[in-house]
Amino acid sequence: MNQAFHKPFIRAARRFPAYLSAFVVFGLAIAACRREPVKPGRDESVSPTGGSPAPRAELVFPATLRVEDETVNAFLEQAMQVTTSGDYDAFRTLWVAVDEPFARDQFDRGWQSLIRLRIEVLQKIRDPVDQGILYGLYAVAELDPEALPTGEEPQRRVVLELRREAEGWKFANAREDVRKAVIELHHRANSEEEVAAKPAP
User: How many CA atoms lie within 13 A of 75 on its CB side?
Assistant: First the structure.
């Protein structure tokens, strides 16, 4: 993996504290779904356009994470809106053909309990298999604890890939090497942020 692609993320991640890990499907954990259970820095909220967004859902795509390719930024803005719209059929169109999103009932449970959805990492990566460009994504969804079964973690952490298909960018389940790279980069940046925040002796 080309380490040069990691430097923009390290610089951007220092601009806001966060804490990450992984999963397999974007509903960005909206589906009170699958896997691992953030302090905002300079946030940029995405205003929903159309659909019926979850009543209290705040959508955050920090300006520091936006990439040079505006088609990637536009796809993520659209995806965040669709994810919180309650439109399962539209949600399915966000995915590559070979990956199946979670079931409709999971989707319905998740978007209705979503309070906040924040993108924490957007990292350009060169695919070691075909040398093409993909993006590693990390997001955190905060769900209403009162809407969840007792003891269920209200924070959901998500790692996905963005891959380009003929019709544009799509979500894909993150391969293990991509998932580990995104998590490691964030942990490193988060550690440096904590060190920088400590007062001088």
Answer: 22
Q: Tell me the C-alpha to C-alpha distance, in Å, between residue 143 and each of 11, 27, 98, 148, 177.
A: 29, 12, 28, 8, 28
Q: Are 134 and 178 in contact (CB under 8 A)?
A: yes
Rounded distance, CA 85 to CA 101, Å?
A: 16
Structure tokens at 161: 């890939």
| pTM of structure | 0.71
Q: How far is CA 124 from the centre of its chain?
A: 14
- Of the chain, the end-to-end C-alpha distance in Å amounts to 39
Token pair for residue 185? 């980069």
90/64 Cα distance (integer angstroms)? 28
Distances (CA, A) of 55 to 52, 115, 160: 8, 8, 25
Q: Which amino acid is at 31?
A: A
For the CA atoms of 178, 182, 184, 186, the dihedral, rounded to the nearest 10 degrees, stands at 180
> pLDDT by residue (tens digit) across 30-75?
443 333 333 344 456 564 444 444 455 899 999 999 999 999 999 9
